[in-house]
Amino acid sequence: MGVDLNSIQSLCLLRLSAIGDVCHAVAMVQAIQRQAPHVKITWIIGKLEYQLLKHLPGVEFVIFDKSQGWRSYFNLKNALQGRRFDVLLHMQVALRASVASLAIKAKVRIGFDRQRAKEGQWLVTNQSVEPIAEPHVLEGFMGFAQALGVKDLSPKWAIPVPQADTDFAEARLPDTQQTMIICAAASKAERNWLPERYAAVADYAVSKGLKVVLCGGPTQLEKQLASDIQHHAKTELTNWVGETSLTQLLALLKRASLVLAPDTGPAHMAVTQGSPVIGLYAHSNPGRTGPYLSQQYVVSVYDEAIAEQFDTQVAWGTRAKGEHLMEKITVDAVTAKLDSLLMAQQTHS
Fold first, then answer.
1. pTM score, whole prediction
2. What Å distances lie between residue 106 and 4, 28, 61, 190, CA to CA?
3. pLDDT value at position 246?
4. Which ranges of 274-313 does DSSP label H, i.e. alpha helix?
5. For 30, which DSSP code?
6. How far apart are CA 210 and CA 261, in angstroms?
7. What ranges make up the beta strands (E) of the chain?
8. How would you label 150-169 residue by residue, b for 16+ Cβ within 10 Å and e otherwise?
9. Which residues contact 296 (CB under 8 A, 6 or more apart)?
10. CA-CA distance, 230 to 239, in Å (whole number)?
11. Cβ proximity of 128 and 110 under 8 Å
12. Selection from 218, 303, 302, 203 nearest residue 260 by Cα
């Protein structure tokens, strides 16, 4: 049961979090905008995620601030008072999002297919996207554009960065030297690689003539990890962890020759900027959540971890459990990917 995009005037998109996921969602939004620029798009988004995307053209944002607890639902209801949309794209399966969706009045409410519509999402939607057997998150999101009749589903990104942030990045990373940016921290500490191994790869990159910069958010965990990496490194590393806004970080990632990161938002931010990413994966399936345009550079021990924990075939999105899984990733495996990436860049230059 498709929807005719030409007959739609207004569309509401519900995707609150996280940074990597909203990066995937941008590609879907911009695919719709390319084919149907007349559609007015309203995006219900989380407070942090809004900071990254607030300059996106042709999109009205309504912030859902979950830190306000139950009040956040009332605030959303008030913000949308008297409004009705032709279509709701309900793109988040968390129960919190489904409760929030009750504040959105829309004739057509599209959610995930029954297989993926967890936590009762199917109770608040009246249509669903086509099921896909083993999708990357981005492909799963593109299913929503496909449900509206969008033909060109190839992901392209145009996330505007203010000129001041571009100037900031150019001043900090001039074109004179290749740079590897390490965004070492994931949202869960168990997904972080070991600081001494990050340091060993950083030293190797320096020996290859690269400048190495540590970037990340302002949390204590991220600052501590960066400081530990510096402590173990034998060479001088630049540490800008906690010193950049999200749009400044985006501008820096655009200027990077390559990015090294675990399963974390900045890896997907780098993809939107066309920078190659060496992704480090143990807990989640990189086929589903890896850096979309850099799958060939992923270092993954996920299959090995899953094989140790399950005797049978597991569902595509199954997570491996354990605090020490990232220890299975060796320095040699990462430097080998670094070598092949640098070689590919030399061939193309």
1. 0.97
2. 15, 19, 17, 40
3. 97
4. 286-289, 302-309
5. H
6. 16
7. 10-14, 40-46, 59-64, 85-90, 106-111, 127-128, 179-182, 211-214, 238-239, 258-262, 277-281, 299-300
8. beeeebeeebebeeebbebb
9. none
10. 8
11. yes
12. 203
Residue 203 Cα distances to 225, 234, 252, 284, 332, angstroms: 16, 6, 21, 27, 13
Question: Is the CB of residue 20 less than 8 Å from the CB of residue 183?
Answer: no
In eight-state DSSP terms, residue 324 is: T
Q: How high is the pLDDT of residue 235?
A: 97
* 268: confidence class by pLDDT, cuts 50, 70, 90: very high
CA distance 256 to 130: 37
Instruction: Give the 3-state secondary structure of residue 5.
Output: helix
Residue 315 DSSP class: -
Instruction: DSSP for 171-235, please give it.
Output: HHS-TTS-EEEE----SSGGGSPPHHHHHHHHHHHHHTT-EEEE---S-HHHHHHHHHHHHH-SS
Cα dihedral 208, 211, 212, 215 sign: negative
Give the span between the Cα atoms of 253 and 159, in whole angstroms: 13
In this model, does residue 108 exceed pLDDT 90?
Answer: yes
Whether residue 86 contacts residue 8, with contact meaning beta carbons closer than 8 Å, is answered with yes
Position 116, amino acid:
R
Question: Which pLDDT tens digit goes with each residue over 125-158?
Answer: 999 999 999 999 999 999 999 999 999 999 999 9
Q: In what order do the strands lie in the sheet with 59-64?
A: 59-64, 40-46, 10-14, 85-90, 106-111, 127-128
**Rounded CA gap, 101 and 110, in Å?**
11
- CA dihedral (129, 10, 43, 130) in degrees, to 10, reads 0
Q: Is the pLDDT of residue 1 over 60?
A: no
